[in-house]
């Protein structure tokens, strides 16, 4: 049985992500753990040597548990009708968001972390939001970031964007993606965003052979490929999300990957376009 983790700060965006995640959990038959990290001032560098009474921390955890219980009660009636109804539990802890989440990921064997983004500017917010960048860099499980305007509906097509510079990493993550796509009967669209100068007939043949081998080994026929011509990665992703009829965008995140380049330097400031679909990030350890 799959297990999904929903970190929440109880904001409207986090609530939307939880409802989105609950719908996904129903479709793939996964159970849910809600979680909240209580960050006390003594753990924040700017707080210096502030003393934080234990009873205050206990009170915050108690309030957190009450909010998590309320969120659980809100989600349970969402299912309605027939079909699979995910089991919902909740956990909280004191510490940084990343540390609390990673502890739960490891101790509870979480398959997917689903959380909302702050603000309403799509991928811009994923890059610049309060915790999103740190989460992308450090979470030890696949991470699904849900923007506030993401439509809650059946997932029919997932685009996996790659530059194919490290195909073994891609293969590992695509196999994980297939375990999500299979119960949804969703198409996986392998997408290469390219500058025309970087293409060659030999490369296109290599890609075709790669997909054929992947489809045969994975025993999953709903895998397709598409070239997206663009001078730069970011406009290509914009076009894909706006015109590719996709419900989710998946990418590999590692040091010096083409996704990593989106998060660094002046490129980050260019991420101003509105991307309305959730972003699924697969972490890969640096070699």
Work out the radius of gyration: 20 Å
Tally of alpha and pi helices: 10
Strand order of the largest sheet: 3-2-1-4-5-10-9-6-7-8
Structural class: alpha/beta
**How is the quaternary structure best described?**
single chain
Q: Alpha-carbon distance between the termini?
A: 31 Å
Q: What is the number of beta strands?
A: 10
The name of the CATH topology of the largest domain is Rossmann fold
CATH superfamily of the largest domain: HUPs
* Count of discrete structural domains: 2
| Average pLDDT score | 79
Which regions have little confidence, pLDDT < 50, spanning 5+ residues? Answer: 46-50, 120-130, 265-274
- The CATH architecture classification of the largest domain is 3-Layer(aba) Sandwich
CATH class of the largest domain: Alpha Beta
Question: What is the N-to-C succession of helices and strands?
Answer: EHEHEHEHHEEHEHEHEHHE
Report the major sheet. 10 strands, mixed
Helix content: 40-55%
Form type: elongated
Q: Kindly estimate the percentage of residues that lie in beta strands according to DSSP.
A: 15-25%
Please describe what this structure looks like:
By secondary structure, this protein is an alpha/beta fold. The protein folds into two domains: 2-116, 3-Layer(aba) Sandwich (Rossmann fold), CATH 3.40.50; 157-283, HUPs (Rossmann fold, 3-Layer(aba) Sandwich), CATH 3.40.50.620. It has helices at 12-28, 54-75, 97-108, 123-128, 132-138, 167-184, 201-218, 233-243, 258-261, 265-269, and strands at 2-7, 30-38, 88-94, 112-116, 143-146, 157-161, 187-194, 223-229, 248-253, 279-283. The longest helix is centred in the N-terminal third of the chain and has 22 residues, at 54-75.
